[in-house]
């Protein structure tokens, strides 16, 4: 344990000057990977290290003993090879509790062509738009809080929830005096990882004699619409999505030998969002519905719901504070079952020491244990309130 | 007792005296009845919001690289650029936003707020979101007005807001309509 802590502290101390030097170098000159007459390549990246400590339960790691297993890093590059065309890619790695395990994944790798402001097309591995934060939920510097409302933006699920292989149409339609409408319509394949949070949740929800073998890639389509109102900073969004025949294959040991049932579900999502940026204030609220519809006869649908409301205020270039309240219900037919709900009040303080170094500290008071599903070391769960401390630092350029 | 006049008629119910009775409407009819009030509220909010941002671009000008094929721009088009809705100039070259590193005065902040509809902090966060979701190119930060003008002069598709008293011979000034 001590060795791990030492290594983490060492890595942070090493990364800080590295980030500063990289920042200075990249700002000093555009990188000309394609020669002096070629298009400049724009590089950006970040490294985040967090710490979690909880008064009860292990949440997002072994938090009851204090967990440093809360790391994210990414490096991206983009360039314009020809008019109206842009190519960009990002490599990403993360480790949150037992999810991620530092596997380096291609987060997105896409080519886009913008015909005009109204219409463009993007293809490859793309970020999936959903609400205010889904496509940037690992970008710590782009928000006030360490942890986003976890019923909506689960830090363990990003392996299959954030990106998909396919394409999308995008654009902005002006509405004269009524602002404009921004849209994104996508379709593709989502590919859950066996080291990701979904796999952990499935394995832990199965009886011990059933082993999870694989999760099958699934087709997904959907879209997002934002109405950017004529009031600066005020916008409303709606998102819809559908995952067709999401399935996982497991092995059940029986006296007659192993059997491999294939479990298939259709999943439909809806999300409604509102955001108002007014002077130094940020106000946000979202509502998220998930409907899981098993294909097997006799299995009933499950309806989950999450909502939150948040406010944040920036005092000056260094300090920002904010808070939110969120409720998650894993099954809306059992709203009083504390094993299936999680209600979380959070207060956060953000300190931007420099343009490239951010530090955050955040306290949570939580009731219910509906989102502890990835960790089997939580044998006793009740509806008593519990506390979570989250600290995180990020270097970015 | 008579029914109150429809708000769509433009006659204020207040002018009809106290004898009129509101007849409840349902569903779509009720929603349509509320539309003028919603429109009025939206207009008031826009005017209030505009009044708060009355500082404008006083003392600042919009400059672009000389290769940009336009010499004027509307405030709406400018805002579309600074909020990532417009990412290419009409001839297809990429728009590159350039900003002063650590905005030098409150006046600079006000000018940036006028064209983006966001304060400095929100503007920075907005573009970080665009960059890390693969949807945009982060504005370049340059320290000092002279260096910024030189950068715009040397960079295809670049656009920036600078103090009007800067030396602008090497760049093209855009008239904001």
Describe the structure.
The complex is a heterodimer of chains A (397) and B (177). Chain A is mostly beta strands and 397 residues long. Chain A contains three helices and 18 strands. Chain A has a 16-stranded antiparallel β-barrel. Residues 24-29 of chain A have low confidence and may be disordered. The radius of gyration of chain A is 22 Å and the shape is globular. Chain A has one domain (2-396): Porin, CATH 2.40.160. Chain B has a six-stranded mixed beta sheet. The radius of gyration of chain B is 23 Å and the shape is globular. By secondary structure, chain B is an alpha/beta fold. Helices cover 38% and strands 15% of the residues of chain B. Chain B has five helices and six strands, in the order H-E-E-H-E-H-H-E-H-E-E. At the A-B interface, strand 1, strand 2, strand 3 and strand 4 of A face helix 1 and helix 4 of B.
Biggest sheet of chain A, open or closed, and with what strands and sense?
Answer: 16 strands, antiparallel, barrel
Largest sheet of chain B: 6 strands, mixed
Number of strands of chain B: 6
- What overall form of chain B do the CA principal axes indicate? globular
Cα-atom radius of gyration of chain B: 23 Å
Taking pLDDT < 50 over at least 5 consecutive residues as the criterion, the unreliable ranges of chain A are 24-29
Q: How many helix segments of chain A?
A: 3
**Count the strands of chain A?**
18
The fraction of residues assigned to DSSP E strands of chain A is over 45%
C-alpha end-to-end distance of chain B: 54 Å
Percent range for helical residues of chain A?
10-25%
Derived from helix and strand composition plus strand pairing, the structural class of chain B reads alpha/beta
């Amino acid at each position: 344990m001590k060795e791990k802590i030492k290594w983490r502290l060492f890595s942070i101390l090493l990364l800080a000057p590295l980030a500063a030097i990289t920042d200075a170098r990249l700002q000093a000159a555009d990188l000309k990977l394609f020669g002096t007459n070629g298009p400049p390549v724009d590089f950006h990246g970040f490294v985040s290290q967090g710490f979690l400590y909880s008064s009860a339960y292990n949440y997002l790691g072994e938090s009851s003993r204090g967990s440093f297993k809360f790391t994210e890093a990414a490096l991206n590059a983009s360039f314009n090879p020809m008019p109206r065309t842009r190519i960009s890619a990002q490599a990403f790695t993360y480790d949150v509790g037992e999810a991620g395990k530092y596997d380096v994944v291609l987060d997105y790798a896409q080519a886009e062509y913008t015909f005009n402001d109204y219409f463009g097309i993007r293809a490859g591995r793309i970020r999936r738009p959903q609400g205010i934060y889904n496509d940037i939920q690992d970008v710590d510097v782009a928000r006030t809080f360490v942890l986003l409302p976890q019923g909506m933006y689960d830090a363990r699920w990003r392996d299959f929830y954030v990106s998909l292989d396919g394409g999308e149409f995008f654009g902005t339609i002006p509405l004269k005096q009524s602002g404009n409408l921004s849209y994104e319509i996508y379709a593709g394949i989502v590919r859950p990882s066996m080291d990701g949070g979904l796999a952990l949740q499935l394995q832990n929800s199965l009886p011990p004699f059933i082993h999870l073998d694989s999760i099958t890639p699934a087709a997904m389509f959907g879209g997002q619409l934002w109405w950017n109102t004529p009031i600066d900073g005020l916008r409303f969004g709606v998102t819809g999505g559908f995952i067709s025949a999401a399935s996982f294959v497991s092995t059940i040991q029986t006296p007659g030998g192993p059997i491999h049932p294939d479990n298939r579900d259709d999943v439909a999502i809806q999300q409604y969002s509102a955001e108002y940026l007014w002077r130094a204030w940020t106000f946000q609220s979202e509502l998220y519905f998930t409907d899981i519809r098993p294909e097997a006869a006799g299995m009933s649908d499950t309806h989950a719901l999450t909502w939150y409301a948040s406010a944040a205020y920036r005092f000056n270039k260094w300090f920002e504070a904010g808070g939110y309240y969120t409720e998650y219900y894993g099954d809306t037919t059992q709203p009083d079952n504390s094993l299936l709900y999680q209600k979380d009040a959070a207060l956060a303080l953000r300190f931007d020491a420099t343009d490239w170094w951010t530090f955050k500290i955040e306290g949570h008071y939580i009731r219910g244990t509906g989102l502890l599903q990835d960790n089997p070391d939580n044998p006793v769960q009740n509806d008593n309130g519990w506390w979570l401390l989250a600290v995180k630092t990020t270097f970015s350029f | 007792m008579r029914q109150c006049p429809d708000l769509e008629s433009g006659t204020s119910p207040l002018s009809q005296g106290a004898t009129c009775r509101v007849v409840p409407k349902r569903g779509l009819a009720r929603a349509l009845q509320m539309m003028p009030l919603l429109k009025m509220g939206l207009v008031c909010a826009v005017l209030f919001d505009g009044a708060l941002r009355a500082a404008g671009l006083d003392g600042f000008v919009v400059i672009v690289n000389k290769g940009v094929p336009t010499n004027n721009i509307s405030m709406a088009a400018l805002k579309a650029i600074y909020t990532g809705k417009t990412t290419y100039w009409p001839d297809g070259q990429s728009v590159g936003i350039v900003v002063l590193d650590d905005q030098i005065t409150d006046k600079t902040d006000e000018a940036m707020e006028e064209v983006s509809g966001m304060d400095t902090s929100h503007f920075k966060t907005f573009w970080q979101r665009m960059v890390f979701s693969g949807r945009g190119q982060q504005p370049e930060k340059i320290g000092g007005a002279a260096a910024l003008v030189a950068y715009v002069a040397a960079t295809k598709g670049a656009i920036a807001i600078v103090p009007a008293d800067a030396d602008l011979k090497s760049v093209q000034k855009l008239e904001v309509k």
